[in-house]
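Pasting as-is:
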Amino acid sequence: MGAIYDTIGSGYVRGRREDPRIAAQLAAALGPPHLWDGSPVLNVGAGTGSYEPRDRLVVAVEPSAVMLSQRSPNAAPAVQATAEALPFPDGAFGAAMAVLTIHHWRDKPRGLAEMRRVTRGPILIFSGADRILNTSWWLHDYFPAMRELVYNRSYQPERIAEVLGPVRQIPVPIPADCTDGFEAAYWQHPEAILDPAVWRATSALSLITTADRAHGMRRLAADLERGEWDRKYGHLLALPELDLGYRIIKTL
């Protein structure tokens, strides 16, 4: 994961910042700050610091030096390490979270086991957990290589439960005006995908081949110009939010 974001993560902070509605759902799932006797929350694959709760102690883990360099001076203290080898003693944290990161881990079961080892309380994984919903929308019609990449990298809740124990799923619909520029953010704003500053901050679009991306961009630009996108997908413009398969997976 560090190598990926050392390559594609430059300028990441310009296109990616937390959406307050998603942040509120994550904070609610973590529970009130007084739990766990004031023990800190671990944020694995923390990136530039989005979604780190500000009302409790946080320790961040991030493998990419490029991403660490973009963290705010006011962000939580961060350690350069991977999910698969967390440099902390057993039970060091009251809770742990991993936001839009598990699809990049090389060894997902080991990373989850490490989170369980160092965490006494709840663990939250936020990801595109519903493979069908997460790969069924218009973006993947234009970029089928992206659909395949997302499908193959997604990690299902039942696989997470095999390591962490019983979990529950909390649906997180994506707002039409989502302020965090991850893959699902622009479902109502197709023109944004044509902007290099947008797609470069979206890992799945960055990781497909140049030829696949260019072909999809040409198709999308042409459909927007002739009104074909509106004909096929214009019904989405009336929706305030859309369920695209994103879930908070929380241990019980």
